Amino acid sequence: MHDLYHELKKLAESDNYPFHMPGHKRNTTSTPFEGAFRCDITEIDGFDNLHDETGLILDAERRANKLYGAKETYFLVNGSTCGVLSAVSAAASMGETILAARGSHKALYHAAYIRNLDIKYLPYKMNSKYEIPEAYTAEDIRPYLPKDIAALFITSPTYEGKCSDIAEIAALCHEKNIPLIVDAAHGAHFGFGSASGINRSEKTSKDYASVPESAVAQGADIVIHSVHKTLPSMTQTALIHINGELIDKELVKRYLRIYQSSSPSYILMASIEQCMEEMEKNGTEYIDKLLNYRNYISEETSALKNINLPGPDEIDDPCKVLITDASGTMTGQQIYDILRTEYALQLEMAGTRTALAIITGSDTKEGIERLIEALKNIDKKIEEVKKSNIEGKSGNLFKNSNIAEIVRIRDIPPYKMKLSKAWNAKSEVVSIDKACGRISAEFINLYPPGIPIIVPGEVLTEEIVSEIKNCNDKNLNLQGIINIDKKQSAEIGVKVMVDF
Ligand SMILES: Cc1ncc(COP(=O)(O)O)c(C=O)c1O
Q: Which of 57-71, 320-334, 381-395, 452-466 has the lowest mean pLDDT?
């Protein structure tokens, strides 16, 4: 039967290996929930209430809080998404302005929509070698931080494992009494292990010696962690930590009551509790295992001629194994597709230049060996393709692999009006060829990693129109465009505000 349950069952019984979230890796020995229905309840007597906790849940939150060292820690059962919505809503009053990186998760944009906020953007910083968003330093941010900003919102680590200098950015914000919100959805494992917190400047070794320091320890005012992404916990489980005096914890709690389910899953809450207990008891071993796996992968692939995995000097988080073909023969998407179709290795995502595998302390040696073996084989294939290209033979495995033509995300488009106004406005769909000069009424995002090319309220300039057409011509994953069927040839349309 083709339904969710049977598809999940089929996946569980298949040979498919998960190099992606969640962190427990479908490994039954890493979770006590073999028969989850047996303990799936709601707020019955004696089991406390997430929205007004006084017993079991409060105790579990306090134990988690001890591990991270914040002033307050709350459990989230609607992912980091509800943590970001609540953090931004509590930090910024209706109509205020928030400073954020363009590459922020969509929850930041949704919070801005709900709270009628203006978003002021940090300049878009791109690592052109790998085509991935870069981290920020305090000096990058200083010129963009006027006093009238309600909060600074930073994503660290990024999806690809780059960390901003949170300690210095927090100090800069606190000089001006501005709260710093860190979306550390991908960094719940930070701060664990025997030697966490090596600084950027000390990372000269080829090996990972630790995971980075947690944003909580570095002084951020609110930190949001998706426990499910890199720790052994179920999907949707997350934490929000509150530090310092700049954030009203009662207000955060109010928004959590608004944005979270009124029937929070006890299985999810128990999963966070179990995960925290596991990290308390065996966190060092979990991180050591991760570091050993990551360093072993580097060692085994270091002699490859084409496949290159950037190490600690370029990617801060050892969980993120970025795979790139340094010869430029193969795109990240092609590497991702080959790993999936020929080796049954499912990665987290692919971009133009890189494919991204996530590893954690819940991986198995067998899974890691399969990845290494596959990378060695792909490396050999790339050699063959290079050779056959030189000899002028046919048989190029990698069609459309002209990666000299990498799509670049341009400057942030001109702002015309607030996101909330434009997203609510009367709109119409026009052909992309007639969209120049119009105000966008929809997000258009390029996946991965989902950074908006345009946000409602911004102007579709000539440059942006050609960017959208270019991405579409290359069959990249654009969300927010509309297919208009015109005499059988697919034409694309965009949603714009009706002129007023
Ligand atoms: C940077 C970032 N923040 C927030 C989220 C939302 O996290 P969750 O899926 O736990 O709701 C994600 C999800 O991928 C993310 O990548």
A: 381-395
First to last CA, the chain: 51
In this predicted structure, which of 228-232, 360-364, 484-488 has the lowest mean pLDDT?
Answer: 484-488
Enter the tokens of residue 149: 């900003």
Q: Which atom of ligand 1 is nearest to the CA of 226?
A: 10
Which part of the chain has CATH 3.90.100.10?
407-497
- Rounded percentage of the chain residues whose pLDDT exceeds 90: 71
> For the ranges 200-204, 276-280, 284-288, 350-354, which has the lowest average pLDDT?
200-204
pLDDT of residue 33: 62
107 CB near ligand 1 (under 6 Å): yes
Start-end ranges of CATH 3.40.640.10 in the chain? 39-281
Give the C-alpha separation, 75 to 413, whole Å: 37
Examine the pLDDT at 378 and tell me if it is beyond 60.
yes
Q: Is 69 left (phi over 0), alpha (psi -120 to 50) or beta?
A: left
CATH 3.30.200.20 fits 407-497, yes or no: no
Which among 281, 354, 348, 296 has a CA at the least distance from the CA of 324? 354
Q: Which atom of ligand 1 is nearest to the CA of 84?
A: 4
Q: CATH 3.90.1150.150 spans which residues of the chain?
A: 283-403
**Cβ–ligand 1 contact at 80 (below 6 Å):** yes
Q: Which of 25, 69, 66 is nearest to 289 (CA)?
A: 25
CATH architecture of 39-281: 3-Layer(aba) Sandwich (3.40)
Confidence of residue 390 (pLDDT cuts 50, 70, 90): low
Question: What tokens were used for 130?
Answer: 């790998």
Pocket test for ligand 1, best of 77, 78, 80 (most atoms within 8 A of CB): 80
Distance 360 CA to ligand 1 centre (A): 17
283-403, which class in CATH? alpha beta
SS3 17: strand
Nearest in space to 309 (alpha carbons), one of 357, 364, 249? 357
Spatial separation of the C-alpha atoms in residues 4 and 440, rounded to whole Å: 36
